[in-house]
Amino acid sequence: xxxxxxxxxxxxxxxxxxxxxxxxxxxxxxxxxxxxxxxxxxxxxxxxxxxxxxxxxxxxxxxxxxxxxxxxxxxxxxxxxxxxxxxxxxxxxxxxxxxxxxxxxxxxxxxxxxxxxxxxxxxxxxxxxxxxxxxxxxxxxxxxxxxxxxxxxxxxxxxxxxxxxxxxxxxxxxxxxxxxxxxxxxxxxxxxxxxxxxxxxxxxxxxxxxxxxxxxxxxxxxxxxxxxxxxxxxxxx
Length: 237
Description:
Layout: E1 4-9, H1 23-40, E2 53-64, E3 73-80, E4 88-95, E5 101-113, E6 151-156, H2 172-181, E7 190-197, E8 206-213, E9 218-224, E10 228-236
């Protein structure tokens, strides 16, 4: 059974002003674990990036019992699910030093052709990742759906938000969203988050972002250019 496992101690760069792991950094850790594990499984850049194939995330989700804090040592686990035609499910867990599960997560990955930006059929390129079943799998993320928000703003994609795929990195959408909502900066504790990525945002693109909440606890957000780029659902304690 192939499970990626890494133990790390949270540093100042990992946490926010409340000394809790930043949401964007949590998903960066998920993303980095996915890439390292994929390399360990023999499907690294020689099979993908060097041949013009890009790994992208289409859906992500996490349930948070407690966000780990500054100087805490945690263990990150990640493993693949069974490939679904063109989608590669992946699961995640974050455990504290006593082995208690703090965070569970899941994501749906796929491949794009770098020039055409079209979906890739992995079997045509010899991309095979065997799924495993641990019994610790959480539900796979589902689309967020259209958002009707009462608040709105704009955001222009800066150079620092663009990754090697040539678009705004998926984790930066969490920073953008939390900056707009203000719940995280006010100290509200996140308990659930779900994100859907529908279209790339490139350097210099301006997103119109709308958001709203019916109860002050659950928020839904959408950012779009001509078409929706991302949608997100956040639930706070």
